[in-house]
Amino acid sequence: MSEHSLSDELESELKVIERTIKILDVVKKEQPIGISKLSEKMGIEEHKIRYSLRLLQKDKIIEPTSHGASLTEKHEKFENELIEDLQEMEQTIEEMIEMLQR
User: Fold this and answer.
1) Residue 4 pLDDT grade (very low, low, confident, very high; cuts 50, 70, 90)
2) β-strand partners of 65
3) CA 2 to centroid of chain Cα atoms
4) What is the rounded distance in angstroms from the CA atom of residue 96 to the CA atom of residue 90?
């Protein structure tokens, strides 16, 4: 990590997004799946799994069931929109890098 709070904050948020996407991928492949199983399978602490699942549940991408997290019908639209958003961010990041290199 760098010594600058702005880049530290960006890196921290990016790690949450990356973790959440990885969790979504595992849920997609192994649904329904519980927090303990996700934690064990991914090597991520349960509180971090719980936080990411809460983010996905808030946006109605997953739903809790008695057997664990399962995808909702909204996940495909969410994934497509997220891909578009990440591609736009990639372009923005490239432009910022260019500005700083001038």
Assistant:
1) confident
2) 68
3) 22
4) 10
Domain spans of the chain? Answer: 5-72
What is residue 69's three-state secondary structure? strand
Query: Could you tell me which of 44, 47, 2 has the C-alpha nearest to residue 23?
Result: 44
* Dist CA 30 CA 97 (whole Å): 39
Task: State the average pLDDT over residues 64-82.
Answer: 95
CATH of 5-72 among 1.10.10.10, 3.30.1360.120, 3.40.50.720, 3.40.50.920: 1.10.10.10
* Cβ–Cβ < 8 Å for 61, 24: yes
Q: Which two tokens stand for residue 98?
A: 């260019």
pLDDT tens figures, 38-57: 999 999 999 999 999 999 99
